[in-house]
Amino acid sequence: MSVAAGNCIDELNREWGVLRHRQVPADWPEGGTLGEVFGRIADDPDRLLGQLLARQAAGDRLAARVVLQAMLGKLVLLAARDPQHSIAEYVTECWLQICRYPLARRPQRIAANLALDTRRTVWAGEQPTVSLDPQVLNDLAHSAGPDAITVIRNATRLGLIDRSAAACLVAVYCLGLRSHEAAQRLSISADLVRWRNARSIRRLAPHAAVLAAA
Fold first, then answer.
1. Buried b or exposed e, range 104-131, using 16+ CB within 10 angstroms
2. What averages of pLDDT result for each successive group of 10 residues across the chain (214 residues)?
3. Which end of the chain is more exposed for a tag (fewer CB within 10 A), N or C?
4. What's the pLDDT score for residue 133?
5. Burial class (CB in 10 A: 0-12, 13-18, 19+), 43
6. What's the pLDDT score for residue 70?
7. 99, exposed or middle or buried, with CB in 10 Å at 0-12, 13-18, 19+?
8. Looking at the record's lineage, which domain of life comes first (predicted)?
9. CB-based contact 129:96 (threshold 8 Å)
10. Which domains are assigned to the chain?
11. What's residue 140's pLDDT?
């Protein structure tokens, strides 16, 4: 894995270094911190991953984030064996697989299923369900506010995205830069630009009404 490709994993691990100390919501079936829940997954993977995916299906993105963290090791191995696709492509696709995982139909071997589905989709060359076309954020802006830059500013102020994610969105969706051009300006990899933008769009879309009120 190249240093540039590794930036995606570094970013996730830095984020997890903060999240792991957070207490889980009171209505989670497992108590403790996110890190403690994560640490129990290896001993009872299908039960705990199933609980997290069920919460994700109800709109709990924090639960989905724990599942993604649990999958990172497998994703790194898959990308290391694949000379054609980047780790960021695997991470983005795995996130999408987590968000649409058919838990009722496939309650067993969840981690293996996620890894296989991710690899199959990446190798098939399918486009992710989250479009990275600049029109996406413009459409969100139309429903949430006067323009894309206002949406990004409001989202940052409300804590829906951080400044690094906002910078990537501005570069691509407001300045019209391509991913590699934005990467040069921000001193990161193009894969990380694409991954941050895909994650941010998924995070912002459900909050259009909140952004409009802001």
1. eeeeeebbebbbebbbebbeeeeebebe
2. 55 90 91 95 96 92 93 93 83 86 95 94 60 52 62 82 86 82 84 83 74 62
3. N
4. 47
5. exposed
6. 96
7. middle
8. Bacteria
9. yes
10. 3-124 (no CATH), 135-213 (1.10.10)
11. 56
Closest CA to 105 of 57, 64, 65, 60: 57
Prediction pTM value: 0.62
Q: Which residue has the tokens 């429903």?
A: 143
Residue whose tokens read 């780790």: 87
Angle made by CA atoms 57, 55, 93, in degrees to the nearest 5: 55
Look up tokens 């496939």; give the residue. Answer: 106
Q: Which residues contact 92 (CB under 8 A, 6 or more apart)?
A: 128, 130, 194, 195, 198, 199
pLDDT at position 141: 55
pLDDT for 3 equals 35
